[in-house]
Amino acid sequence: MRINHNISALNTYRQLANNQNIGNKSLEKLSSGFRINRAGDDAAGLAISEKMRGQIRGLDMAAKNAQDGISLIQ
Questions:
Q1: pTM, two decimal places
Q2: Structure-derived torsion over alpha carbons of residues 67, 57, 55, 58, reported in degrees to the nearest 10
Q3: Could you give the 3-state DSSP secondary structure of residue 26?
Q4: H or E segment at 67?
Q5: DSSP H or E stretch at residue 69
Q6: What is the pLDDT of residues 21-60, one digit of tens each?
Q7: Domain coordinates of the chain in residue numbers?
Q8: What is the C-alpha to C-alpha distance for residues 45 and 36, in angstroms, rounded to an integer?
């Protein structure tokens, strides 16, 4: 029994797949505009970022409510 294989072609394919994955991750970062897109990029940074985004949304809503209150009084 004889087994034929092409090790160099398999290595080339593996390298191509790795480079394609790296390119896809870079494109995802560029297209979103964020430094952190998923927890794998920076888990601690993502947690801090999400907490800050929540605080910003809360402050925006407080400002909107204050403006609505001012409008009601007028």
A1: 0.52
A2: 40
A3: helix
A4: helix 43-73
A5: helix 43-73
A6: 999 988 988 888 777 777 777 888 888 988 999 999 999 9
A7: 7-73
A8: 7
